[in-house]
Write a structure and sequence with these properties.
The complex is a heterodimer of chains A (224) and B (297). Chain A has 224 residues and is α/β, with parallel strands linked by helices. Helices cover 10% and strands 24% of the residues of chain A. The chains are: A alpha/beta (224), B alpha+beta (297).
């Protein structure tokens, strides 16, 4: 396993090393001290272990790589991830998994506001709570929340699936509770298992789009 | 974008290192605010009278003449000049000193008044500010710092944070207010004076006005949620500690951390990472509109 110390090595040289690595290579990164853009733009199935808290935009644009952060992550974690896995043992700040197209994002602790904003296919599993405006304009993928959800969950949502175990402070426009059918239970069970979260799927409720915003409503014409 | 930091010492042994601990926090926030920097430090209480910090834009001010002039009117126990700013230790009521300074030295800006607070600020590279004002050597109970990236008004020392909001009170701000022009006019009609066109000065003036109307700090901040429009993470220094509050949308970042020795807040964790024991601190992100405060018992 290659060890990189960010006290002596720059983030740029770290990312160059990671982006040039072959599938299966292993890296351990130390002394992160809240630095920005750690382990971004990876395109191969490398294994990266980050020991410590990271700042803005960690694991952004990830493809295939398996990145574990032993600590907390700042704003913009795994933004626009395409594939692979990003796992945070602590909390994540604002807009974790924003616009992400694929892969699995696991946050063991809490995620702050706007988690999964405009998500486009990623699966996000949060062990704790999520903040307000999460899954805003979410288009596809799943957001699993084992704790509570803040205000305006799933505002203007398209087709993503939201599974929440705890209390939802409020639902956003066009987001409604939906029936948990067998296919949903199965999907949720699989995501919880993949994420190492041990909960009874029957404790979760599903939320999704009422699809009322899809088409122009003639009764609303006065609003324009 | 701006950077804000706050440090509250819980273990009195560390009070002598306050400046040495805050300076690296401020340095880390330089990229968030390279235009100017400032610090409010709470130290050396002057309980028998007041401490007033004053600022002049130029370096050619005759501090000796000021000292003689004050001594002719008030009991001045000390004047401590740092660069273009000075702290006056006067054995007289604050309002008397402020009125006298306003009348006789209109070229001086009063940046803070109270018994414990001292505010220093300067435009230019925050790293130069830290050196010029020898921040690292400062001792004290708590401090708030700010690095500024101006977005809505000019880059001058007077436009820099922290802004005084009353006796031993000050405000630093990361964000921008959208209704500051209208609110400034409203507050002017109610007697609040402003020196600049800066949005944060309006927030400071607003809090001063609410406090003068009888609010306590928590009530004033709760009123601010209704009356201030915009994005903000505020840190408010008080005589005994400091408070932190984010706007309802919570766009502007903030992180808080606490150990047995200190409590800290910053725009980003990397500023807190400079503190001893940060890796094992309790760390959390403040919730929007919740007021978090630390206070000396």
């Amino acid at each position: 396993m290659a060890e990189i110390n960010l006290h002596t090595d720059s983030v740029r040289s770290l990312n160059e090393a990671l982006q040039g690595a072959a599938s299966g290579d292993k890296f351990s990164i130390n002394n992160t001290r809240g630095k920005h853009a750690v382990s971004v733009g990876l395109t191969t199935a490398v294994n990266v272990e980050i020991n410590g808290h990271v700042g803005y935009y960690c694991a952004g644009m990830n493809q295939q790589a398996n990145i574990t952060i032993k600590g907390n992550a700042g704003p913009g974690l795994a933004e626009n991830m395409m594939s692979g896995k990003v796992h945070v043992t602590g909390n994540a700040s604002q807009y974790a998994g924003a616009t992400a197209h694929g892969g699995l994002l696991i946050i063991e602790g809490d995620a702050s506001s706007r988690c999964g904003i405009s998500m486009k296919g990623v699966n996000i599993v949060v062990g704790g709570n999520i903040g307000h405006m999460s899954a805003f304009m979410a288009q596809s993928g799943c957001l699993v929340v084992c704790g509570d959800a803040g205000d305006a969950l799933g505002d203007s949502i398209y087709e993503a699936r939201l599974y929440v175990r705890g209390h939802v402070a409020s639902l956003g426009t066009d987001c409604i509770e939906k029936e948990m059918r067998a296919e949903h239970t199965e999907q949720l069970e699989s995501l919880l298992q993949l994420s190492g979260m041990n909960h009874n799927v029957n404790e979760f409720r599903r939320y999704g789009s009422a699809r009322k915003l899809y088409n122009f409503d003639i009764d609303q014409v006065d609003a324009y | 974008m701006c950077g804000i930091v706050g440090l509250f010492i819980k273990n009195p042994v560390l009070e002598s290192q306050l400046g040495a601990l805050v300076a690296p926090m401020l340095s880390e926030m330089t990229e968030r605010g390279p235009d100017s920097a400032g610090i409010a430090v709470y130290r050396d209480p002057h309980e028998s009278g007041c401490k007033v910090t004053v600022l002049t834009e130029g370096l050619d001010f005759d501090w000796d003449a000021l000292e003689s002039a004050i001594k002719a009117v008030f009991a001045l126990s000390k004047i401590s000049v740092i660069h273009n700013q000075a702290v006056l230790f006067v054995d007289a009521p604050i309002s008397d000193v402020q009125h006298w300074l306003d009348r006789n030295y209109p070229e001086l800006s009063i940046t803070s008044a109270g018994t414990n607070i001292e505010i220093f600020k300067g435009k230019g590279d925050p790293l130069d500010f830290i050196e010029k004002f020898d921040i690292k050597s400062m001792s004290g109970t708590h401090a708030l710092g700010h690095t500024r990236m101006a977005t809505e008004s000019a880059i001058t020392t007077e436009h820099s944070h922290p802004f005084s909001t009353g006796q031993d009170l000050c405000l630093v701000h990361n964000g921008s207010l959208s209704n500051h022009n209208r609110l400034r006019e409203t507050l002017r009609r109610r007697g609040v004076q402003f020196k600049t066109d800066n949005d944060t000065e309006v927030a400071a003036g607003y809090l001063s006005w609410r406090l003068s109307e009888g609010d306590d700090l928590e009530q004033a901040l709760n009123h601010a949620i209704d009356d201030l429009d915009g994005f903000y993470t505020f840190a408010i220094g008080t005589k005994d500690g400091f408070a932190v509050m984010r706007d309802p949308i919570g766009c502007k970042p903030a992180i808080m951390a606490e150990t047995d020795d200190w409590a800290a807040m910053a725009s980003e964790y990397r500023a807190i990472a400079t503190l001893p024991g940060a890796e094992n601190a309790r760390i959390w992100e403040p919730e929007p509109t919740q007021i978090y405060s630390w206070k000396r018992n």
